[in-house]
User: Fold these one by one.
Assistant:
Number 1:
Amino acid sequence: MPEKIGDSPVNSQSISSLAERQFEGKPIVLVVDDNPGQQKLFLLISSALGIMAHIVGDCDEAVSASTYFCFDVILMDVRLGAESGLSCTKRIREIDKKKGRHTPIIAVTALAMPGDKEKCLQSGMDDYLSKPFTMAELKEKLAFWLQEKTEPVAISSV
């Protein structure tokens, strides 16, 4: 099974690990999801797609990770425990503003009611992917945002 990058909460050792792995040339994606089953699924998917995943379980951990490391993309669950993915996105956008960057954030959520996508985009998210999704759908979203951010990045075929 793929290994989770770093420990939660974020600490200097996990940031050092992220920095070392960035030089491997693989995109590093922050996954923010409080469901252990979904976290395991994202680890498996990220391994299959040839990307590195740093997984955190709540907004505070996501904000901490974003403060100390620049991720290529963030996959954000909208329904987190104490704080929603929408408000978490706003906090990360404040960090991005202070650091002069824009990290693509993709909402990954079971919310699929009319208006939900618009709420995600209004909160500062860049894109929206509803659960359940296929690996091909996730691969397409990641490829688009990784290409927008940097030079084209190859994502492994599934």
Note: Confidence is low (pLDDT under 50) at residues 1-9, 150-154.
Number 2:
Amino acid sequence: MSAGCNGCHGGTGGGMGPPLTNPVWVYGSDDDTLFRLISLGSDELKKQGYTRKGSENVVGPMPPMGGVLKDSDSLWKVIAWIRLVNPSSAGGGTAPSASATPSGAAPAAPSGRHPRHPPPRPRRNSG
């Protein structure tokens, strides 16, 4: 992934960050949580009230990639790539649990980005 995912996530096998191909999703695998995690990074996500739902061996927090991925379309492409390398991630794509979701307004976005991101794209029926 040109955004730099492989540097920490080791392509599909993990590295200093968790692998993207196993069934463990530290903060959840729903589109909204992934969008916020990638854009804001794990430290800011926790400041927004999200809690860890799973456990992985990681070296440090995920950095915010909102400054690297300049628009929401690029971020959705990363999420689509995650779904491609880990089709089981979409199975957990329901709404995040109450313990993982903060109450209140949308998180503050990194500077230069709109404070609210577009809603998750609707899923297409394959039948």
Note: Confidence is low (pLDDT under 50) at residues 93-119.
Number 3:
Amino acid sequence: MKKPRYDKKIIEPRKKISKKKLFTIIPIEILEDKSLKANEKILMGEIVTMQHNTGEFRATNQYVGDILSVSSSRASSIINDLRKRGYLHSYQHFDMAENRTTKRTLHAKVFRDSQCFKVHKKIKASKP
């Protein structure tokens, strides 16, 4: 049986977060992974940073292509390759009222246990 490309998720609309991202964090676990190419590491860093700031990474293939200086079709193949190798999980958000997919979000599977975020939480907790 063929594994589905995306998991469908019925979601409530979420309020926008007005944080501006000034930099990208690439966890050491991603940097040291020899199986990832440079563009994949940059994309993973971008996803991890946005996931940390806003809770999700939702961007079009065109936006990803602009970040990496590649075409949108190449960006799509990079995303699919990372997803197939287990680095990313992709969700299609389905709106039942309009009966259509409203957005795609990407979630990095390395995000939760990354050492840089554990240190960041300790620093935040120690501030008065």
Note: Strands lie at 7-10, 88-95, 100-108.
